[in-house]
Amino acid sequence: MRVGLDGQNNVGSVVQTSSGLPAPFAPEGIRARVRYNRGRVDVLLGPGGAGGGALSKVLAAEIIPISFASAGESAIFGFTASTGDLSETAEVDDLIVTRFGCDDIQEVAEISGAPAEPVAVGATIVLDGSGSSGGVGEEEEPVSHLWSIVSGEAQIVGPANGPTVSVRLLSEGPVTVRLMVDDGQCSNPASVSVVMTAGGTSLGNWIRCDCSGDGQRDISDPISLLGWLFLGAGAPPCPEACECSGDGATDISDAIFDLGYQFLGGPAPAPPYPDCESFPACGDTCAAGR
């Protein structure tokens, strides 16, 4: 089927390209009208001949959005039709262009601080993603950070959306940690992963929740913590070990957690408890072979 333009650039007729049918602009041809308005095209057809008749809408369609990219951010948008003799170039007003592509520089994700050698089960490793950036040439652009455990037995201690993260290794074997960074432009965040391994050869140097530092687990531990927090008592010998609940903060909730575990059947501290854990800043209260 062909759509023809008459000498005034109006659609004159539509005919099928089969033998025996009228010429495109013959009076007995099929009358047609095409309307274009703000991305919508309507095609109406009716009988030709003297007097004609009412036109019936046979097509109503929305122009499919077309994306483009060019250095000058310009494009030509339109459609073509041909009679074989006439052609027309028309301007389309009120064209709305939506950008589908994005030319944002790719972010860069970096992690440092991952140990190359196996570390003790229960150790807490601090990974640093502050070297990440919005991309080459945009190193000063702020980015968001999101850490996650991809595989292995481990838990994130404290926030998972800062430039650094603390990861506690809970059992032997490899642990994969992923960092995703995003500058908020386009949908092209960058990510990187590191693998750490927890081994079973190191015994650690302290029992978590042993706040009194006597190598025993009893009521003296929550009492020692409460005295330090609220009564002006001296700092415990290993403050990190007083963080008993595993939420990353040392506060009254740790004493409550410990009392609930010891006397009310509450949940136990996270593994490797009751085995010794690695607290590098503390001394050593773990007996050999524990």
Question: What topology emerges from the helices and strands here?
Answer:
Layout: E1 2-5, E2 11-15, E3 31-37, E4 40-46, E5 56-62, E6 119-120, E7 124-128, E8 144-151, E9 154-157, E10 164-169, E11 173-182, E12 190-199, H1 220-230, H2 252-263
Parallel strand pairs: 6-12
Antiparallel strand pairs: 1-2, 3-4, 4-5, 7-10, 8-11, 9-10, 11-12
Describe this structure in words.
The protein is mainly β and 290 residues long. It folds into 3 domains: 101 residues, no CATH class; 81 residues, Sandwich (Immunoglobulin-like); 86 residues, Dockerin domain (Type 1 dockerin domain, Orthogonal Bundle), CATH 1.10.1330. 8% of the residues lie in helices and 26% in strands. It contains 2 helices and 12 strands. The protein has a 4-stranded mixed beta sheet with strand order 6-12-11-8, with no helix packed on it. It has a 3-stranded antiparallel beta sheet with strand order 3-4-5, with no helix packed on it. Strand 9 and strand 10 form a beta hairpin. Helix 1 runs antiparallel to helix 2. The longest helix is centred in the last third of the chain and has 12 residues. It is elongated, with a radius of gyration of 37 Å.
Overall pLDDT level: 78
Q: Could you give the distance between the termini?
A: 89 Å
Order of helices and strands: EEEEEEEEEEEEHH
Work out the number of β strands: 12
Number of helices: 2
How helix-rich are the residues, as a percent range? Answer: under 10%
